[in-house]
Amino acid sequence: MASSLRSLPAHSRLFALSVLATTLLAACGGSDGTPQAIVPPPPAVEATPLTVALEKIGSYATGEFVKSAAEITAYDAVSKRSFVVNALAGAVDVLDLSNPAKPVKVGRIEGQSVLAGAEINSVAVRNGLVAVAMQAKVKTDNGRMALYDANTLALISQIEIGAQPDMVTFTPDGKYVLVANEGEPSDDYQIDPEGSVSVIDVSDAKKPQARTAGFTQFNGQEAALRARGVRIFGPKATAARDFEPEYIAVSADSRTAWVTLQENNALARIDLASAQVTSVTTLGYKDNSLAANALDIQDEDGKINITTWAGLRSLYMPDSIAAYDAGGKTYLVTANEGDARAWGENNPAYVNGDTGKGFMEEFRVKHLTNAKGWSGRKGDDLPAHLNALAAGGLLNPATFAYCGAAAGTPGKCRDDDVLGRLKVTWTQGYQQNADGTPVLYTAAGVASPTGDRLMYDNLYAFGGRSFSIWDDNGALVWDSGAAIETFLASDACKLGSARSIPCKTYFNTGHDALAKADARSSAKGPEPEGLTVGKVGNKTFAFVGLERMGGVLVYDITNPRAPLQMDYLNTREGWDLDPAKNLDKVGDLGPEGLHFVPAAASPNGKPLLIVGNEVSGTTAIFQLKMTY
C-alpha cells in the first residue's frame, strides 16, 4: 500500500489517505471504542489547471459540403449522446459518444411530424430532455419548440412560438426553455415579423407553457434609441419588428437572461419571472484609429497589413453570448462576428432600383465614395434604398484628409490598397438633420439643399473581429481588440492537427473554397462566431470558434479584466486542397456551434469540447489537455 501511495501525485495521495483513515476509523470504532457507521468520503474537488490545450480525439462526418449538415451541438450526460443540428436534413443527428474517440450515429430527430417543411435551427439538452427549435417552411410564420426524450427520441410535447426560432437553451435550474425568435423579414422585406424571446415553463414536460418577452413597449421610442446608438434601420421599421434576437445567455440563478440583437448591435435584458424585456443597450463601436483596434482591410494585396484607420469604426454586432460568474458578479462573453442585412440581393428588380423588393445595407467603400456617383453599380450591387436617398457619397476631408480626401473627391481613400475594398454599412456615418434626413451636398462638396451627395464623417464596418467581456448591464469590461488577427499573423500560430503549418501563410482565408491568404480581410476577417464557456477547477475558460479562418481559440477568462490566451487549434487539413473535391481530406471547416462538457458529465471523465462545423459537415470532439 505504501509503495502504491508513493506513486500517486501529492493531491491524490492526500485524498487516498483521507479515505483510508475514514475507513479504518469506521472499522475499528471511534475514539471511545464505539463502532461507527461508515461515512463516505467527500466528493473529490476538481483540480485547477495551470494551462489548458485542445486535442482532437474524434470526429463524425456527414459527407456533405457547404450544406450546414453539422451546426449547433448539445450533449446529454445520462445517455452519453451528442445532439447535432443537421439543417440540410431538417433534423437533429444523434451521436453515441460512449467512446468519444469514435462517435457513432444512432438516430435522428425529425421535425416533419411536428411542423411540415420545418427547418431545425437549434437544440439544447438537460437531464434527458431535448429541446428543439423549429422554423416554419415560410420563415415569417410562427415556429415550434418541441421536447423529446434523449433515450427513446420520442416526442413528448410541442408548442407554438414566434417567427424563426433561432436559438434554444435551458435555464440552469431546468424550469424554463428559452428561445430567441429572430423574426427576420421576407426576402422582399414586405413581411417583417416582430422579434421576441419565448419563455417556456417546462416543469411539466408534457404540458409546456409559453410566455412571450417582446419589444412592443419600445415602439414609439425609435428616435431615442437611435440617438443612443441602437441600430433601427429596416424599411418602415418599428422597434419590435426591427429587433432580431440572435443568442441567449442566462444567469446562474436562472432569474435573468441576456439576448444579443446582432443586426441592431445591441443587448436586451430579460426578467424571466415576468417574461419582460427590461432594457435594450447599445454595444457601441470600436475606434479603428487606435492601435489596440488595428485591422487588415485589404483582400487583394496578398499581404498582412494590420494597421490603424482614422474615420473607421467597427460595430461589435455579436452572435454568440455566454454568462459566467467571477468575484460574485455576472459577466457576459460575446463573439463579435458582425452581420449585414442583405435581402433581395439576388433580385434584379431590387438592384435596379425597386425599394419594394428587398433591403441591402452593405457596400464597398470604393463604390460608396466614387466621385462620379454610384449609378454605375445599378443592376449589380447598388442598394435601391441608398439610390433613393442620394446619387453619391463623399468623404469628409476633416476626417479623411490623410488618404487624400478633399472637397468633391475621395483622393486615394477609395483605392483598393487603402479603404476601397472594405465592406461597410451605408446606413451610418453620414451627416443627418435633426429629423434623420441626410444633410445634402453638391458633387463639389458644398452643403446645399439642392445637392445629391451624402457626406460621410465616419465609416462603419461589420463586426469587431474580437470577443468581448461585458458586465451585466452591457458595459464593456474587456475586448480582445486586434489580438486575434495579430496572433494569426504571428510566428507562434500554427495550423492543422499537427500544428505544423504557419498561420500567416493562410491569414484571413475563407472556409468554403481553396485557401487564399487575405481573402476575408475586407469582410469581417476571421469572424469569431461560435462561443461557449466552461469551468475546470476554479478557472473559467472561453472557447471561441473562428468561422472563416477556422479553429478554436481558448482563453482563461477567470479574471474578466485580464483574460489570457491558452491555445488555438485549427483542424483544417490539406490547406492546398480544394475542399469541394477533397472533403474527406480537409478536416473541419466553419466552426458554428460549440458545447463544453465538464469532466463530471463526460463519458471518459475528461473535459470535452464538441464543435459542429457547418461547411465540412463534421462534428469534432476535442479533449482538454491540462497541466497542473
Description:
- It is built from nine helices and 40 strands.
- It is 9% helix and 36% strand.
- It has a four-stranded antiparallel beta sheet, with no helix packed on it. A four-stranded antiparallel beta sheet has the order 2-3-4-5, with no helix packed on it. A four-stranded antiparallel beta sheet has the order 6-7-8-9, with no helix packed on it.
- Residues 1-39 have low confidence and may be disordered.
- It is mainly β and 628 residues long.
> Treating each run of at least 4 consecutive H or I residues as one helix, how many helices?
9
Mean residue pLDDT = 93
Summarize the biggest pleated sheet: 4 strands, antiparallel
The backbone outline, from C-alpha atoms, is globular
